[in-house]
Amino acid sequence: MHPMFRVSLAMALCAGVAACAGGAREVRVAQGPSIEGQDWRLVGTSSGDKVPGSGAGSATLVFKGERFGLSGPCNQHSGAYARTGSQIRFGGEGGQIASTMRMCPGELMARESALLSAMKQPLELVFEGPYLSLVAADGASWRFDGRPEQPSAEGVDRIVQIAGQRAPCTGVVEGLCLQYRDQPGSPWQYLYGEIEGFEWQVGVEYVLRIREYTVPNPPADGSSRRWMLLEVLDRSRP
């Protein structure tokens, strides 16, 4: 073999394996779009759950540095995360994610449990316009919207528990009012008025997602707020 050919061949092999004289070349994996600096609001799941964009039952995912925070659908969650290209791992070493221990209606707890279980495994990041999806190995996915939330013209979503018995109450006139509370075990409060679209049955306790509107200039015998039923989350007989 001609000496010059041997030199050229050696140089070509050196460049091909990226490990000659100067050591192995560092290989960088493209990270793709940034996930930091914005609030990612949960807007849908592959199971077809109804996901409110704000208020009760909503969820927001935030990344900052090497930490993440997840607010909702019921509790607050936080921990480390690591991203390599389009793959993300939550919880750092050992997959530890810290969570508060608030109890919520079964439907919300089930949605939260499914998401947290998936976050214990590597997930794929899929970007589509303003949306970010977390996709599990079994195909389950959670879709988040990175655009700022548009303020609602009116109305606030709430989750309330409705008692199975009405109670005597006094407004302008005496009557029997629905009883409600925001947290299990807290004192019952009177609802002066009815819930639009809701058919109450005696002896049945409900967990509802409602939208509350402020009534401007209510009549003397009326309430300053108006409730509209969005969804019956649970019903039971004590």
Q: Compute the average pLDDT.
A: 80
How does CATH name the architecture of the largest domain?
Beta Barrel
Which band does the percent of strand residues land in? Answer: 35-45%
Number of helices: 2
Low-confidence stretches: 1-29
| Main sheet characteristics | 8 strands, antiparallel, barrel
SS elements, strand count: 16
CATH class of the largest domain: Mainly Beta
Distance between the termini: 93 Å
- Measured as a percent range, the helix fraction is 10-25%
What integer value in Å does the Rg equal? Answer: 27 Å
Count of domain modules: 2
The chain-level structural class is: mainly beta
What does this structure look like?
The chain folds into 2 domains: 40-145, Lipocalin (Beta Barrel); 156-236. By secondary structure, it is mostly beta strands. The strands form 2 sheets. It has an 8-stranded antiparallel β-barrel. Strands 10, 11, 12, 13, 14, 15 and 16 form a 7-stranded mixed beta sheet that branches. 12% of the residues lie in helices and 39% in strands. 18% of the residues are buried. It is built from 2 helices and 16 strands.
